[in-house]
Amino acid sequence: xxxxxxxxxxxxxxxxxxxxxxxxxxxxxxxxxxxxxxxxxxxxxxxxxxxxxxxxxxxxxxxxxxxxxxxxxxxxxxxxxxxxxxxxxxxxxxxxxxxxxxxxxxxxxxxxxxxxxxxxxxxxxxxxxxxxxxxxxxxxxxxxxxxxxxxxxxxxxxxxxxxxxxxxx
Length: 169
What we know:
The protein is mainly beta. The chain has a domain of 110 residues. It has one helix and twelve strands, in the order βαβββββββββββ. The strands form four sheets. A five-stranded antiparallel beta sheet has the order 1-2-11-6-9, covered by helices on one side. The N and C termini lie far apart (43 Å).
């Protein structure tokens, strides 16, 4: 069975879904989990599907961290659980750029499960062509529990970010 998904035929994705919700709402994604390195039931799932044009960012374009706990709306890095993983999978460009501890940067490999932690700084990059992009992030349930039962995790939209200095209408 091919691991290719026709992203243009999917809905916008899921947000903080349990594995069972992911399986129900986006069954095509399950074929990508055949080589997921851990038990998928231990993770909360986010999937975003974007139709992109050149210059659009499908995710936050500034350097940032994912799922940093907050106390009184202030990031509290002392509460990070570096022993609990997150995984990122992208169908293709634009790729996510990660900053290494020595300050150099690297782009993740598409169509593979890329392990990272809450303390791995990264940013999105802009699309250079028209196309569809699938994004999957699996976050260990100890970091981010799935939506409560009865909550609809189906995404109704997927935002894009634009470079305000170069945008025109």
